[in-house]
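Worked Example 4.2. Consider the chain below.
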Amino acid sequence: MNFMNHLEKQYDGVIIILFLMMLSYLLSLFTPFSGNKVMPSYCNQGHFDIVVGISGKNIDGGIYFLPPKTRLGEFLHNLKIQESASFDKELPNIPLKNAQNIFLLKGNKINITEMNAAQKLILDIPININEMSIQELTLIPGIGLKRAEQIIQLREKRGGIKAVEDLMMIKGIKEKTLEKIKGYFCTGNDCRK
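Applying the procedure from the previous section yields the following structure tokens:
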């Protein structure tokens, strides 16, 4: 009988441990990460038109999804990186655009560049097909080296691709293939920056 009591206690202990593990997991799904990163106050507003990356010396870099019309100074202030007054007077008023990388350099210098094609693909940001290299085109699922070369040739022949649907002029690209790849591309005015 003593052996059975011992087994029952072990069984109860396992049940309690499993319950606590499940409870911990569920709580982690609904509780924001409480590490060193500071989340801007507007990150919970729910409407994001701008995706930017930030990195630099002595900061934790990251990708941020921002509401429309966010300005650089506001973004830096909300991240509590540095007082915007210590930067060039014009910088805080610069409106951020989609798919930008912000690099904080020594001496309160800031370098803002456009994200590369790989970053945009990971973040599901369409890429201007008229600016992509052969190597960048091959990053798109379903586009190999031969198809990338055909796209470049079409682009050069027509003086640019006016609409993603122009890709159907390439032999082997039909509606089904176009449906699979068109979300990766934009052209001219269709590209949000």
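The longest strand covers residues 50-56. The chain has six helices and six strands. Compare this with Example 4.1 before moving on.
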